[in-house]
Design brief:
By secondary structure, the chain is α/β, with parallel strands linked by helices. The protein has 15 helices and 11 strands. The strands form 3 sheets. It has a 5-stranded mixed β-sheet with strand order 7-6-8-5-9, sandwiched between helices. The chain has a 4-stranded antiparallel β-sheet with strand order 3-10-4-11, with helices on both faces. It has a two-stranded parallel sheet with strand order 1-2.
Amino acid sequence: MNKSFQPQRRTVLKRVVQYSALGLFTLLSPLAGSLMQTTQAQTAKVINLAYQSSGDIVKSKKAVEPRFKALGITVNWVGPFAAGPQLIKALNEGKVDIGNVGETPPIFDQAARPGLIPEVVYLTGRTPSDGTNQGIVVKANSPIKKVADLKGKKIAFQVGSNAQYLLAKALKEVGLKISDIQIVALTPPEARDAFLQNKADAWVGGDPLLAAVEKTIPIRNLRNAKGINTLGGFYIGRRAFVIQNPQLVRVFLEEAEKVGEQAEKNPSDYAKILVDEQKLDPAVALKVASRRTYKLRRLTPAIIAEQQGVADFYFDEKVISRKIDIKQGILSDLQYKASIPDNIK
């Protein structure tokens, strides 16, 4: 046997045994319900919640702290992360228990770990936006007039994020591939700066950075995400934490959904938070708040199939090197019943 394969095999077997045992415990708990929620919730004393530099309304509102304090749980906010790939890296390192990302980061993470059970599990979906909060942009005086003109050009964006999905899909619409452009791989703030400093011909970005640039300089949006980034992203969790602490996951998601409902009814309230926390111009903050979505939605076979379609697209376009099965990041029905609150529909 090839010796180089043995450590990986042992790792796979170890994780299979670990997660099988956790899953068995979950299934043996009556209806994955009251017993689990009263005993398993005490497994963790700290919950590590991730937030990105684009802002997190749950963190801003301090929405979950009172509930967790009553359970004797300390809330530790980890971040800010520049984007989803950085957040998932921290989750894999055990530094994060729950976070929210776009559709692409979990796919890239799973593709990069062949033979391993994904540490990242899908919890809920997020309501899709109308796509106007993202775009492939050039400066107004650029000779690039349409997406097809991007062939051979330098484009700055966060690799492994939903920006890459928008770009790849937009290029495919005009008969091009990612390999037809020059990738300038940077974090979202760095990609914006490269664009502003003329170190890239185009930039793929989203709010709040996009809204701020729209107000700062004349730009042309070649293609926004309307009809492309339809999934809206996901709340994800660290597999072992979610299985061991369903009540804590349930509490967090219940409060996150309440905050989301309030924000959608009163985006101006969230705009005020963006002004205070991110020092955004009030008009920019209101645009960001009005273009963002907040409510959550339960995972359904249709949503899972759509996410599988995104993964298959990346494989077909040779963006990822192997075909993956999204269902490896999906928990059992009983585990979701224990961790997803009733107010998420």
